[in-house]
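Chain entry —
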Amino acid sequence: MKLRLRRLTDLVLNHSSLVFLACILIYYGLQAPAFLSVESLGNIVKQSSFIGVAALGTTLVLMTAGIDLSVGAVMFLAPLVAGMAMKHLGIPVPAGFLVSVLTGALLGAINALFIVKLRVVPFIVTLATMFLFRGFGIWLTSSTQFDFSEDMRRFGLSSLFGIPTPIVIFALVAVLIYVLLNHTQFGRQIYALGNDREAARKAGLKTARIEAAVYVISGACAAISGFVMIAQIGRLDAGFGEGREFDVIAAAILGGASFFGGVGTAFGAVLGAILIQAAKLGLVFTGVNLYLQPVVLGMIIFLAVFADAVRTRRLTNKLKRTIRPLTRS
């Protein structure tokens, strides 16, 4: 009986994010049946694409035991640069999308320069650039609203084979990150770096390049995320993306990434983003007081992260029990 209970506990903990998502869907579905409608579920996935794309990039950073607090600021600045290019240079939306991605990658490279070359702690660097990037964007707009063209709105509200464009982009980025992590040498090197930086360096891995690359990718993903969201609303103000770095990091952690590095998957980041958005929308459907919603959402995230911490500790203890001490001959 105890063995079965232990196996069941391990099964639940190993799939804690899926279990929490299922519980959220069931609970809110019983409270408000409309929550489980096809339209509602589609909106959850569509709205989670904004956080999800950025969470995919942040997962790579966390896998190296780093952190990127500038994600929200990059979401703001990169699409702004693209918008100005579209407005003043007359370039089409696809070209503007490319400008946004390249700008995000450049901003990520700035983070990488200080972290990798100057060896400044990632938390300090990205905290500083969070204010720097946003401040530069506010200076460019003089803290006024920037309106995008109707072409941008049409892009954001368009669909491909009946699937909304934001979901298509979300899926494409998720597939790319999945392939990168599971089917490339670079992906294996990220895991190696996160598990043991010194061992990776001694094994001949170019740890500086790997670490720099994940920050560049994180910046590009944040830029895509911001562009996709702005394309749906058609405007950008000084507060856009502010505080979103916490949602992004929470989604990555809920998906199985760790602040200590070495673990994380593309599927986990996607699941984490959907979990957060489902919880948010469920609170709206059930009519929870607007001022209490952050509290309830915080409790849900805390419980999910706590379950992940318990799972990690149990796994560590299990590994310790399997290591046999050396015997003297």
Remarks:
- The longest helix spans residues 293-322.
- Confidence is low (pLDDT under 50) at residues 323-329.
- DSSP finds 14 helices and four strands in the chain.
